[in-house]
Amino acid sequence: MINRIDISGVRNIDQLSFCPGEQINLLHGINGSGKSSILEAIYLLAAGKSFRSTKIAPLIQNGRKECSIFAKLDDSLAVGLLKGRNQKPLLKLQGERQPNWLEVARLIPVQVIDSNTFRLLEGSPKDRRKFLDWGVFHVEPSFVSHWRNSRKCIAHRNLLLKSGRPDMSQLRAWNIELCKEAALVDRARERYFTDFLPIFNDVLCKIGAIGDISITYRRGWDNELDLAEVLERSLSIDVKYGSTQNGPHRADIVVKSGGISAVDVLSRGQQKILVSILKLAQGAFQSKTESRRCIFLIDDLPSELDKNNRANICRFLQGLGNQIFMTCVDRESLENSWESTALVAQFHVEHGKISI
Ligand SMILES: Nc1ncnc2c1ncn2[C@@H]1O[C@H](COP(=O)(O)OP(=O)(O)O)[C@@H](O)[C@H]1O
Ligand SMILES: [Mg+2]
User: Fold this and answer.
1) Looking at residue 336, what is its pLDDT?
2) pLDDT by residue (tens digit) across 332-350?
3) Left, alpha or beta for 161 (phi > 0: left; psi -120 to 50: alpha)?
4) Whose CA is nearest to atom 13 of ligand 1?
5) Distance of alpha carbon 308 from its chain centroid, rounded?
6) Rounded CA separation 228/19 (Å)
7) Could you say which ligand is closest to the alpha carbon of residue 114?
8) Residue to mutate (ligand 1; options 12, 38, 44, 60; most atoms within 8 A of CB)
9) Residues 6 or more apart whose Cβ sits within 8 Å of residue 220
10) CATH number of 1-109+293-356
């Protein structure tokens, strides 16, 4: 949980500090006031990237050389980030410089629900793999190294394949390594998905009203065959494309509604409910299994949702008890959505400043 946050030089936020509540934090204000930028700053600190743009530089306020974000967590841990233009980010945990985001990402698990979350349904398998791997990362500490090793093997393999006439002994050596790492990545994903599924179905029942939804994990190669055999069989295709066509880098989650690809049949609003359910279920699962509970950043919840569905999601969120940062233009749009407003801290955002 975040107890205090200081943001400086992020988009239209000059300097802003506030102490969020332990449950729902509702940030309201007109378009362009800086609500999403607050969520973006929290995400940048927790995950090292933006959920709105691929580069961090556009986040730095025009005319400023750098931005900084600082957060105090509930157990007094302090995390700070300084990012200068054209400079590598400087991330510190308890004053100690961090070589990467691994530790901070584990300490501040964040789930974002915003207009890009639709990519979970309409985007490429990569988006769904990212979603799946976020969950596995948080419950299986060894996953990252196997995932990295498998990617390294694939990169080496692809280099050989691109030559058109790969050295077969080198290729076989990479195949052996890849098969070993791929099996570990697949098993971790499979285990995670098996445990995630009942949680997803439970959240679907609670928020639902979108019909018969099914989700299935695909590991990235034929279910009936060993990867070693698949790699042997697909050698000529791999050479033709100059890249590895089967493996854990091709894993996916198939989402269907009534047996048909969900993105082809659900309305935009229904899709928003479904992607929200996937994200909420994943955060709920993470919070159930790990000591550090996931923080939700929910950008513009009311858009594309009717009153009933807004209320279903808001009540579910309150029941979850996690810390949530949520934005909306008019707070009235969520007025009757809460079970109780006692634990809803409201903040007004205006010109990059925040007030109660
Ligand atoms: N690098 C930047 N420097 C200064 N202002 C910026 C920068 N990037 C975006 N902005 C401005 O910041 C404002 C806040 O945007 P945003 O947080 O998306 O608003 P909201 O979510 O409240 O609608 C916008 O008016 C936008 O034009
Ligand atoms: Mg916004």
Assistant:
1) 84
2) 888 888 888 878 999 999 9
3) alpha
4) 32
5) 26
6) 54
7) 2
8) 12
9) 182, 186, 246, 247, 248, 249, 250, 251, 252
10) 3.40.50.300
Alpha-carbon separation of residue 192 from 124, 139, 195 (angstroms): 21, 8, 5
- What atom of ligand 1 comes closest to residue 40's alpha carbon? 17
Task: Identify the weakest region by mean pLDDT among 140-149, 229-238, 288-297.
Answer: 288-297
Helical residues (DSSP H) of 163-306, grouped into ranges:
168-207, 227-233, 235-241, 262-265, 268-289
Residue 295: count of CB within 10 angstroms of its CB: 23
Q: Is 35 in the pocket of ligand 1 (CB under 6 A)?
A: yes
Ligand 1 touching residue 303 (CB < 6 A): no
Average pLDDT over residues 141-166: 95
Query: 34 C-alpha vs ligand 2 centroid, how far in Å?
Result: 7
DSSP string, 103-160: HHHHHS-EEEESGGGGHHHHS-HHHHHHHHHHHHHHH-TTHHHHHHHHHHHHHHHHHH
Whether the model clears a pTM of 0.90, i.e. scores above it, the answer is: yes
Q: Which residue has the tokens 């098993």?
A: 187
Containing 72, the helix (H) or strand (E) segment is: strand 66-73
Atom number, ligand 1, closest to the C-alpha of residue 38: 17
* Nearest-angstrom CA–CA distance, 278 and 306: 19
Q: Where are the domains of the chain?
A: 1-109+293-356
Q: Tokens standing for 16?
A: 């802003």
**Could you tell me the distance, in angstroms and rounded to a whole number, from the CA of residue 11 to the centre of ligand 1?**
5
SS3 348: strand
**For ion ligand 2, residues whose CB falls within 5 Å:** 36
Per-residue confidence (pLDDT) for residue 298, from 0 to 100: 96
Give bridge partners of residue 66 from the DSSP assignment: 84
The residue behind tokens 């050698």 is 235
Percent of the chain with pLDDT over 90: 86
Looking at residue 234, the DSSP 8-state letter turns out to be T
Q: Dump strand ranges (E) for 247-337.
A: 252-257, 260-261, 295-298, 324-328
Nearest atom (ligand 1) to Cα of 58: 1
